[in-house]
Amino acid sequence: MQHWICVTCGSQFAASETASASCPICTDQRQYVGYKGQQWTTLAEMAHNGFHNVFKEQEPGLLGIGTEPSFAIGQRALLVQTAQGNVLWDCISFVDDQTMAEVRQRGGIAAIAISHPHYYSSMVEWAERFDALIYLHEADRQWVMRPDKRVVFWTGETHPLLSDLTVVRLGGHFQGGTVLHWPGGANGQGVLLSGDIITVVADRRWVSFMYSYPNLIPLPAFEINRIRDTIAPYHFERLYGAWFDRIVSADAHQAVLRSADRYLQALEGNFPRP
């Protein structure tokens, strides 16, 4: 029996003798099946092929954890360190003894929260190794490919975690899509960890929002308005997207609001001009 991992999206599946014919996350129109067709791997095979994790201090109390060489979607996880315990935001597929040692040096993991199904990856593997619970929004229950008693489904619009951390449902990319608000980050000015529910674009003064990123399917105006109105009351100076270099380093709150306005203007055909 193996916990097979989809090579395209990185999701780990419930144990089985043989891998599935397809990955439901990848056959959904928000994702895609790789050009070489459906492919599978395992943690043991990844280790054998030289995959390993790297650790980068993003700012005091925030550690980035990513896999090299890049695997699946290539996102990195973020470990938020608080006096009440650490929260792993988003997740990655690969975990090994070295990763466990590095994280335990920083206090381990008390809870895991994930923005949306594309980053569920090997979340149960991580939860088992660190004896942590996983907090996911109920609206995305169907996308959990490895069900486990450690997964806690919450409902509503917000969910408190350790210390003053709050998970906020924004929807958009997925119905249960969430972001994590960390008021103590950025020297008390606030940080938002957004995965790609709010994605940092190439011009890092701006962000954007999509139903499907790889297939370039936009969100309708009512979704953008709702996302804008939901996040507006939260204060944050800095925003961390899903990849190491995708950071809005300053004035991030206003960057999100003006990006939503720009998106709405474009939908209306009123493209902003320099």
- Write down the secondary-structure element order: EHEHEEEEHEHEEEEEHEEEHEEH
User: How many extended strands?
Assistant: 17
Note the total helix count: 7
The residue ranges in which pLDDT falls below 50 over 5 or more consecutive positions are none
Assembly annotation = single chain
Q: Mind summarizing the main beta sheet?
A: 7 strands, mixed
Question: For the record, what is the CATH homologous superfamily label?
Answer: Ribonuclease Z/Hydroxyacylglutathione hydrolase-like
Distance between the termini: 58 Å
| Second CATH tier, the architecture | 4-Layer Sandwich
CATH topology: Metallo-beta-lactamase, Chain A
The CATH class, by name, is Alpha Beta
- Identify the overall geometry: globular
Structural class: alpha+beta
- Percentage of residues in helical conformation: 10-25%
User: Cα-atom Rg, whole angstroms?
Assistant: 18 Å
Percentage of residues in DSSP E strands: 25-35%
Structural summary, described in words:
This protein is an alpha+beta fold and 274 residues long. The protein has a single domain (5-267), classed as 4-Layer Sandwich (Metallo-beta-lactamase, Chain A). Helix content is 21%, strand content 25%. The chain is built from 7 helices and 17 strands. The protein has a 7-stranded mixed beta sheet, covered by helices on one side. Strands 10-11-12-13-16-17 form a 6-stranded mixed beta sheet. Helix 6 runs antiparallel to helix 7. The longest helix is centred in the last third of the chain and has 16 residues, at 252-267.
